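User: Can you write out an input/output pair for a complex, sequences first and structure second?

Assistant: Here is one pair. Inputs:
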Amino acid sequence: MTISIDPQKTNNESLQPKGWLRYFSFSLDHKVIGIQYLVCGFLFYLIGGSLASAIRIELASPMSDFMPRDVYNQVLTLHGTIMIFLWIVPVVNGAFGNYLIPFYVGARDMAFPRLNAVAFWLIPPSGLMLVASYFVDGAAQAGWTAYPPLSITTPQSGQIIWILSVLLLGGSSIFGGINFIATIIKLRRPGLKLMQLPMYCWAMLGTSLLVVLSTPVLAGTLILLSFDIIANTGFFNPVLGGNVVVYQHLFWFYSHPAVYIMVLPAFGLVSEILPVHARKPLFGYTTMVFSIMGIVVLGLVVWAHHMFTSGTPPWMRLFFTIATAFIAVPTGIKFFNWVATLWGGKISINSAMLFSCGFIINFVFGGITGVALAQVPFDIHVHDTYFVVAHFHYIVYGGTVFIIFSSIYHWFPKITGKMLNEKLGILHFIITFIGFNLCFAPQHWLGLNGMPRRVAEYDPQFQFVNQISSLGALLMAISTIPFLINVFLSVRNGKDAGDNPWNALTPEWLTSSPPPVENWEGEAPLVEEPYGYGKNISERK
Amino acid sequence: MTTLDSSKEIQKNNFEVNETHEDFRMFGLITFLIADGMTFAGFFAAYLTYKAVNPLPDGAIYELELPIPTLNTILLLVSSATFHKAGKALLKDKNSESQKWLFFTAFLGIIFLICQLFEYFHLPFGLTDNLFASTFYALTGFHGLHVTLGTLMILIIAWQSRIKGGRLTSQNMFPLEAVELYWHFVDGIWVILFIILYLL
């Protein structure tokens, strides 16, 4: 059976609000939903960033003098949860995925437009609920991991709101994942083969598989945890005969893949950006596809490397150490491919390129500390110290957030039809890069010297290094200002971008900027070589 | 402008694209059921780990009787068959026969839920008595929620199939096929649950 698509009808044009109002409506247009994700995510990034600043202000002095200790716990829990579930996951999957994937597969919209809109509209209420929980008897205090028995013994209302909010966000994520899998596999334009898809499609396919396979486990676990909190059951409560390690296994079965859910789409996005600005085909397309799928498979069987100090038996430690070390292989292949893509290219030094190069530098560093953390003796030494915090932020901030900014600089001309100011962009990059490294590089040293994470007070000997770190955080906060000015100025009176300012070959650039509701005036173009840079030029000669 | 040349080339390939596409709602449903199955997989993994690692404390009661769950297994397996019958009947445009089978399937689902509640009321342990009691209620309760939703959906499509040429016809089988797949999925989960909870 076939279903006919009439964008006029599915979007019900006459009933839809026009102009900026449509971003506040239940729009079914994948481009509108993508921008909704992006702007909503960025607002939560500002909230999460303010919380991070509060943490760094507190840690600028060894005593807990800026806020009470329980407030500090609430702030770090909210910071982690907001940044992961409301900024990185929705933006790097939802925003760019919704905007780009239909273009890349040559479709007019996502496979399930209504489900798509539902998935987005679950996010603002659950995010607001999470933030509001601070004002209702205090937010959750058990960190974004919500380990019992800590999450059972801390004040209940905040923890329950936290669980409810994460469940809704998980549901949104699953709906999005189902949509992406169906769109990429089933909605491809006739004649477009899987191996001709831009790399971001592969990354999103892998990510969505991880979302669909692992997020439900987190949902089930959190339901059991909420029973422990509300109904006084003992699933994870040792006092009532429960088992806390089971929670950790189930939690990390989601939350380790969650790292790949946050990072794989960034891998895909950087694979789109580098070839365009280096004017070279993406190096090693096939190896890239297989390494993405390799990461998906391996990513599902490495979770217990977060639990080396949880009484894990020796065979488990051995297995998870080896499996984790193996992940470095596909990841390394991808990094060599990106460097090889740049090698000998005609590189334009612009904001998008700089942020992508910053990503490569930061992520290699985070990846190396990741391999180090997989080794049991080393991990036991630095477990729950600032070394882990530094490693994690090198992956998700130095990696993914750099790519989010890079992608904004790259696709802003397509989304708005206006160019961003390059000078402000480069200024943004320089402050972010210096601030980020100043903030998180010293934390490796702090962790190695035994400063525990998630504690408001610390030994006075660490004060100087902590102040350097806080200075870096200040720079990171400042770096947002040129970016915001840039976006506001450019939306109002930026230089006209034209349809294809980067001379890119991927399908989204083959339509007008901003694209029409139907994505293309006529037929969807068949792009067989999305990275065919250099080839057309030789043909012309 | 090399790229614009290539884009012109591309637009020369003009044939019907994307104005129609195959129906992949079933594909989406299967993906969702895989996700749903993973929730159960998490619960099963937790239960099996408890069984292997956590001893039953002294004096705690955790005993299950077989007759009711065995009856329930038979009920669900029969209901899968009757649902299949309903689909076959609808395919031959026999709406009233299809509706009869659907109502019978929903009836079996309701009997299942009643039996489940009966078992709950007659078990010698409550939700918070011990770890295994809690896990038992969580697993069967979560499955029971699925059966409840399934029964409601069966009643809805049974209502939809009341007239020939209405919402549910041999030309538009999707609602029936979707609920049928969901129902088989819930049955399959029950069989695994029965083996793990009652037989192991």
